[in-house]
Amino acid sequence: MSQTLTDTNPGGVESDEQPLLQIRNLEVGFQTQRGLVPAVRGVDITLYSGQTLAIVGESGSGKTTTAQAIIDLLPGAGKITGGQVLFEGRDLTKLSPKDIQAVRGNLIGYVPQDPMSNLNPVWNIGFQVEEAIKANGLAQGKEARARTIQVLQEAGLSDAADRLKQYPHQFSGGMRQRVLIGIGLSARPKLLIADEPTSALDVTVQRQILDHLGTLTRDYGTSVLFITHDLGLAAERAEQLVVMYKGKIVESGPSQEILANPQHPYTQRLVSAAPSLASRRIQSAKHASVGDSGIYGGGSLDDTLVARAAERESLAPVKDLISIDNISKVYRIRKKGLRSEELKAVDGVTFGIQKGTTTALVGESGSGKSTVAKLVLQLESITSGSIEFDGQDVAGLKGKELLKFRRRVQPVFQDPYGSLDPQYSVGNTIAEPLLAHGVGTAKERQERVKELLDQVSLPWSSRFRYPSELSGGQRQRIAIARALALKPDVLVLDEAVSALDVLVQGQVLNLLTELQTELGLTYLFITHDLAVVRLVADNVCVMQKGRIVEAASTDDVFDNPQQAYTQELLAAIPGGNFQFGR
Amino acid sequence: MPNKSGQAHFVAELEDTPVAPIDRLDESQKARSTWADAWDSMRRRPMFWISSVLILIIALVALFPGLFTSVSPNLDCQLANSNGGPEAGHPFGFTRQGCDVYARTIFGTRASVTVGLLATGLVTLMGVILGSLAGYYGGWLDAIVSRVGDIFFAIPTILGAIVLMSVLPAATPTSVAFVLSIFAWPQIARIMRGAVLSATNSDYVMASTALGVSKFRILLRHVIPNSIAPVIVIATVSLGTFIVAESTLSFLGIGLPTSVMSWGNDISQAQTSLVTNPQVLLYPAAALSITVLAFLMLGDILRDALDPKARALR
């Protein structure tokens, strides 16, 4: 592999210290029916004792595969086809399965990605931690139990002794991740591999967990290898950064330096697509067009979106298109026997959305934001209060009236893998709403499908494809095209970009704002990601436990948050105030 | 911060790591649906071709038995040939009545296969309709269908069929198929209901609802096509078991009357000459086994081809 070494720190002292982990020209491939498919192609990584290194890349870039290859955890068909993994000078790729087992856990700890599925639901927490402690030969018998409690306490579960007998379902996501971190660090390993340890968690919980992980590893002198898709997190938590793309390293070095001054075009793209709170919307008013390459190029997203927002603000009329007045939604939850309990998912929410603007509803999981979306879409009935759309109460709509309402208010859902029927081709999917509402002749519908595919920058030939052949971002673009088919006034976007990679997320946001300007759409944008809100929203409502705690214009909320909860949310965004070089 | 060795700012050569457009659709690949995918995996398996060819031959025999033998199964019987061994033109030998075993086996195919196909069709139709209505609309409809299904499920198919057949006046392949399907539909209905329940809770159903597609149309266009795969597999497998059930009933003397030629009847009549002339039993029984096996194999291959977990590995 040819390399260019750009030493941007000429005065730096070259140390002779032996690296803890040195990966040399690592190659990993997956055996498939069509032969060996390379996943990692010649990767070099150097990590010293006590350092934190982050591998950043989009899904499919090979970052997780690299981490798994280090401790021989590659899934079935994967195998190392070349290179060395030197851990304290010992090549781990040459070790026997028995020897590598002694390395795993004892010398190299691992924190898996998904806290929801990585604890066994049929065993209690105490048993699972104790099992890890015994397997690593740290303690046996009574001592192991005492050690279990100690490990969990260190991981931040203060009442660990009382919770040993509890099962994973009695723990929240954050607590489960603490347990996994506890297990990973129980043997005081020299290196901890953390594969997206917090991507499934709310920002405030993420911050606590990362802070705690940072303190622990600093105290023990543990090196940490982070795998993440979040540039902000990498900027904030890691000294060293490795950017991977299609199985290769495109840029590596000190993280602040790379993010402030990205050299490789791919890194530049990533950095410019990363939504950051530091990007001031109003100040950067220059209208940068996206360029000749359309949405596929990825110019500076901030500037483009911000200019469009400013444009919308100057046009916005005063009357609310949707006004939501004191709505509540109560679910009855069945308890033991015949008793049932009330759960207030939405509790007296009031806000209005002006025509042609974007209102963001922000909150953590369980805040009731998605329920509000379903109420607005009339997918669930409200318990009390009223929702008016264009001067008409939508609560009691039936038959034709409801159909007319559905035509004007269309949804785009979170999960691009679930919201498209796997048995429907793209063309049929987009044509479905036209067919359901009896719009046009077959030929006119086809014309409309063509126009819509064009609007979401997909080729006409893609109409024969099935969802399983498309990427997450492409599916979400299909979902947007379907929502636009009936020329609606309002789109309800329920976490529409949350499941996507940074670049693809930027691309879809770009597309959404472009369509908004072009078609005069009104958006209700539901998300947990405040950084995205800053880019696209005109108004923000912050929700907590079913209530709106703060509602104001985007700039007010971000520059001058009034509520403690909003401040906490803003502070928790990883790398939120890091000034990316663009 | 000083750069330690091997950690200086490294930038890969651009020629080595070209940057592709973001998330552009790869148009070089061919488009494919679930069914195209399933077909692709099936046609690679020799078992699929073996079972398909067998089923094709069986179908041909059932439709045009005259193509395969010129000997009449019941008119050319001569007692002189009673229990005779194989001879030229009569490869399987003769029954006790002196009828040609080969011709009887060939002509018996139609009744057996008719019962199998008809019963499978009826069971699938009833099961799919009742199961999907119960799973999709829920409430009292679900309660009634599920409880009635449970009642029929508790009665073994053969036992129920024996009771019902013994009170029916004249049995024909159609009536046997009807009786069998009355007791066998709950299995398919249960599977369909479960599949429909999970499909109904999927996001694409919610998306279609919000797009203004009517509830019944969603059931027809989205829910049923996404739930039908397991039913097809079970139906293919159960086709074999219905043919066996018909033979069992005929063997017990309450299935098809002896005037109708079927494998079950021939097996039943072979009882009397089993010791002296086992070929009378052997050939219809072998035909039955091969037919059942062919459908079981096909069902197995269909299941593998339609299983989403197995598909992910391809």
Automatic annotation (TrEMBL), chain A:
<dbReference type="Pfam" id="PF08352">
    <property type="entry name" value="oligo_HPY"/>
</dbReference>
<dbReference type="GO" id="GO:0015833">
    <property type="term" value="P:peptide transport"/>
</dbReference>
<dbReference type="InterPro" id="IPR027417">
    <property type="entry name" value="P-loop_NTPase"/>
</dbReference>
<dbReference type="Pfam" id="PF00005">
    <property type="entry name" value="ABC_tran"/>
</dbReference>
<keyword id="KW-0067">ATP-binding</keyword>
<dbReference type="GO" id="GO:0016887">
    <property type="term" value="F:ATP hydrolysis activity"/>
</dbReference>
<dbReference type="GO" id="GO:0005524">
    <property type="term" value="F:ATP binding"/>
</dbReference>
<feature type="domain" description="ABC transporter">
    <location>
        <begin position="322"/>
        <end position="570"/>
    </location>
</feature>
<dbReference type="InterPro" id="IPR050319">
    <property type="entry name" value="ABC_transp_ATP-bind"/>
</dbReference>
<keyword id="KW-0547">Nucleotide-binding</keyword>
<comment type="similarity">
    <text>Belongs to the ABC transporter superfamily.</text>
</comment>
<dbReference type="InterPro" id="IPR003439">
    <property type="entry name" value="ABC_transporter-like_ATP-bd"/>
</dbReference>
<protein>
    <submittedName>
        <fullName>ABC transporter ATP-binding protein</fullName>
    </submittedName>
</protein>
<dbReference type="GO" id="GO:0055085">
    <property type="term" value="P:transmembrane transport"/>
</dbReference>
<keyword id="KW-0813">Transport</keyword>
<feature type="domain" description="ABC transporter">
    <location>
        <begin position="23"/>
        <end position="271"/>
    </location>
</feature>
<dbReference type="InterPro" id="IPR017871">
    <property type="entry name" value="ABC_transporter-like_CS"/>
</dbReference>
<dbReference type="InterPro" id="IPR013563">
    <property type="entry name" value="Oligopep_ABC_C"/>
</dbReference>
<dbReference type="InterPro" id="IPR003593">
    <property type="entry name" value="AAA+_ATPase"/>
</dbReference>
From TrEMBL, chain B:
<feature type="transmembrane region" description="Helical">
    <location>
        <begin position="232"/>
        <end position="256"/>
    </location>
</feature>
<dbReference type="InterPro" id="IPR025966">
    <property type="entry name" value="OppC_N"/>
</dbReference>
<feature type="domain" description="ABC transmembrane type-1">
    <location>
        <begin position="109"/>
        <end position="299"/>
    </location>
</feature>
<keyword id="KW-0812">Transmembrane</keyword>
<comment type="similarity">
    <text>Belongs to the binding-protein-dependent transport system permease family.</text>
</comment>
<feature type="transmembrane region" description="Helical">
    <location>
        <begin position="151"/>
        <end position="184"/>
    </location>
</feature>
<dbReference type="InterPro" id="IPR000515">
    <property type="entry name" value="MetI-like"/>
</dbReference>
<dbReference type="GO" id="GO:0055085">
    <property type="term" value="P:transmembrane transport"/>
</dbReference>
<feature type="transmembrane region" description="Helical">
    <location>
        <begin position="48"/>
        <end position="68"/>
    </location>
</feature>
<keyword id="KW-0472">Membrane</keyword>
<dbReference type="InterPro" id="IPR035906">
    <property type="entry name" value="MetI-like_sf"/>
</dbReference>
<keyword id="KW-0813">Transport</keyword>
<dbReference type="InterPro" id="IPR050366">
    <property type="entry name" value="BP-dependent_transpt_permease"/>
</dbReference>
<dbReference type="Pfam" id="PF12911">
    <property type="entry name" value="OppC_N"/>
</dbReference>
<feature type="transmembrane region" description="Helical">
    <location>
        <begin position="117"/>
        <end position="139"/>
    </location>
</feature>
<keyword id="KW-1133">Transmembrane helix</keyword>
<dbReference type="Pfam" id="PF00528">
    <property type="entry name" value="BPD_transp_1"/>
</dbReference>
<protein>
    <submittedName>
        <fullName>ABC transporter permease</fullName>
    </submittedName>
</protein>
<dbReference type="GO" id="GO:0005886">
    <property type="term" value="C:plasma membrane"/>
</dbReference>
<keyword id="KW-1003">Cell membrane</keyword>
<feature type="transmembrane region" description="Helical">
    <location>
        <begin position="281"/>
        <end position="302"/>
    </location>
</feature>
